[in-house]
Design goal:
mainly alpha; 2 domains; 72% helix; globular
């Protein structure tokens, strides 16, 4: 039996709902007082893993991230919809719907889940590659002002701890040396 055939025999919930471990990790983040975006990051991470292991694809890294954020909102992470002007009205409306869906539980439509899964299976897997994600992160960082980037770096310094801070410093030094 091919793995693709095996995937088709799975019920809709298995591939559309977040894994139990992901929900646990997000809960742990919340209990530790970490930000909503950190909690949502667990769902994005799960989605990237799904693409890498071939469960489905994504049109772009941005779509993979959007799927993860949508799952996070539906799972009940209190991640608000983006403010007006930050994204298209359509995206903001979808995010608001996901937030509302996270407040009430309804069994997902099997037909819709199947259609979404089939559509995503046709998409490329390369959208979760390291270069694709790195360029997406770079583009996202460039959209922020130098002040915002500096504030984020300062916060990272406060929350990282000495060992991870040292590792990050070494990595930054290597990056600077390579770009010279």
């Amino acid at each position: 039996m091919l793995w693709l055939d095996w995937m088709r025999t799975l019920p809709a919930e298995v591939t559309s709902m977040p894994e139990k471990e992901t929900i646990e990790r997000a809960r742990k983040d919340a209990a530790q007082g970490k930000s909503k975006s950190t909690q949502a990051g667990e769902f994005v991470r799960e989605e990237i893993h799904h693409i890498r292991e071939g469960k489905h694809g994504a049109r772009s890294p941005k779509q993979a991230i959007a799927i993860g954020l949508s799952k996070a909102r539906r799972a009940g992470v209190k991640l608000p919809a983006p403010r007006a002007g930050r994204t298209s009205k359509q995206t903001a409306r979808k995010a608001a719907r996901d937030v509302a869906r996270g407040r009430r539980r309804r069994r997902p439509s099997a037909k819709r889940s199947r259609a979404v899964r089939r559509a995503l299976r046709r998409e490329p897997r390369s959208s979760a590659s390291r270069p694709a994600l790195a360029s997406q992160a770079h583009r996202a960082a460039m959209r922020r002002s130098p002040g915002e980037r500096r504030a984020a770096a300062k916060e990272a310094v406060r929350t990282k701890g000495p060992a991870r801070r040292r590792a990050a410093g070494r990595k930054a030094a290597r990056t600077r040396a390579r770009s010279r």
